[in-house]
Amino acid sequence: MTSQERIETIFDGGVPDRVGIHDTAWGTTLERWRREGLPEGVAPLDYLGVNDIVKIGGDDSLRFPIQVLEEGEDYRVYVDNNGVTRKDLNPGGGWTPHWLDYTIKDRSTWEQHKYRLAYDDARLRENALDVYRHARQEGKYVMYSGHACFHPIWHWIGQVNEFIWMAEQPELIQEMFGAFAQLVIDIYEGYKGKGITFDGAFMADDMAYRNGTLFSNAMYREMVFPFHKRICDHMTADRLSVTLHSDGDIREFIPMVIEAGFRGLHPLEAKVGLDVGELKRDYGDRLGLHGNIDVRALATTKETIEEEIRNKLTAAKQGGGYIYHSDHSVPDDVSFENYTFAIEMVKKYGSYDPIPG
Q: Cis bond leading into 152, ω under 30°?
């Protein structure tokens, strides 16, 4: 099977030749892996010959001009492309952002700046057509990649402000959600106008954390669901299978997520108690499951790695419907040797041929 055929089979409810494989890693992880043998300019799964999915996204920011206000060896203070003043710290191992101030503070400033969400072709990735053509030559499954409506808004106004406004100014927040959802659709249509035909869509919208969802079922139904459904309806009209990415314990929302039109769920964080076997039992006939391999196991021994992958894949692959992915991006405590071994185990236990030995 080609990658495109494999992932299409998974979302169509069939059984492929093996589980799908796709993953992401921190920038510092890639730096480590290059020191340990991964060639420059090659993605890990491409190097290992198993990457099934290529994602193409666009610029969905408010497009404020970036302004550096102060910079030191291990920090920088700047205004980002959403008009947020940030102080990013790098004590070693990557940048950690801290949000200091926001340009959009109320309805008045929203009205002043909402024009910034207008679509034009400059929002499209410059090399998108080349990436697309190369992916097609290699038989990859091509996904339109973007955000949905909830998570991006906290990068405009702050997470606490978003929660307060959802309770106290729901009309304003829904206006923002709607404007953003329309931009997501406009970027997708822009790519179609350039001759890119997607196989699926991947929409990121973090709505949960360690202990559960970030807001109530009632708020999801009233405030977020309509815009998730708008995005899914638009994509599924073109026969795309739409995957939702949400970190954290998203279980409370899953029935409504399915109702909104999502056909896949990612990354199924093991660290918050999600278990792909339970999700397979409860939702495997309605959702493609994408992830759940605990990154903490990948940093340990080969015996532990094999156990993690054997147990998860044995449950997840039954009847099809599963794509391998770490339960979040792979951190830099995972060696390239361990990761290479993990992928070998995915090929071994994720095959639909009899498992050798």
A: no
